[in-house]
Description:
The chain is mainly alpha-helical. The protein contains 14 helices and no strands. It has two domains: 1-41; 45-345, Retinoid X Receptor, CATH 1.10.565.10. Helices cover 65% and strands 0% of the residues. It is elongated.
Amino acid sequence: MNPTAVKLPESVHLKQIIIDIENRRQDLQSQDVCTTLSKIQPKFIESSFCNEIGHLMYLELEVKKIRESSYNPTWEYSEISEILRMPSKLADANKYRKPSEWPLDMDTLASNFFEISSAEKFLKEDEKGPIKRHWLVIDFILSLEMAKILPIYQNLNENDKVILFKKVGLINAILMQCFYSLENNSNTILFPDGVMPLKMLFTVYKQFGVTHASKLYIDTFCRSIETLHRIGIDSNEYVLLKAIIFCYPAVQNLSEEAQKLLRKQQEIYALILLRHLQARLGDIAGAKQYSDVITLIGTFFYFAECHKQTHIIPPVEMKQANPLCLENLQRLYMNSTPRILEKILL
């Protein structure tokens, strides 16, 4: 039918009616398209998880920048709560520079490790002892500096934060050490200043005629890296895994409200990880990689316990040392132990 051929009263504006009908038709078509798209498109839009990954990657970049600099909070804190009350140091990442003497000469460090005379001189000059930079403490603090910026932590009270960080801070610190060691093609933990703790350990063992490290030290400093290498974890998976661990809700003495908030946020990060992997690898391969990455949570809980034991339980081989050597070793260790280390390990 031709609308223009219809005779209507003069008071009716035919052209306006035609325009209104056309506009209505277009509106209905647009609604049909939106309804159809909402049915066929997944609710989880790619741009949303890309933004979240981008935010985590930015924070990690700042962590890496400050970790590879002169920043050294080893002796600044004695309580975890002190760290939480301070603004995040990541905002100052550009204020620090990489020390010119890095990487340190491991052979020189190892050869001087047992020179008691130089150690005694050092102790007289500085009661903190010869190990001025304690990387486990530094990486623990840097993990907290990153976590403090995550929105979820703004909703937790200080007591819940301390309880949670005491559990997950060490795990993410060790995960960070392993990931960046792997990134530098090292099969053992390697710190930014070039120090390899396992090589220092071999130096200690050599004094007792021992030529190999125990399973505890191999697990702690080598197999933790092998695990990441076997899975082939990349930087996106790494930052999401850290975020998932940061939101670990099954920590004893956490309030019910904190557990609920953390569980919800952890599920969001886990979903982002799954969707990211499926978008990159396909549904089946992505789901498999997701399972492998999530399994790392339990694995690094184990490696965290290994790290604790290396600090708390003296190696069996140490008992072979002569009393004078052992006494000096114990004295050097006590003088080089940061105050906050006990809070991290216990």
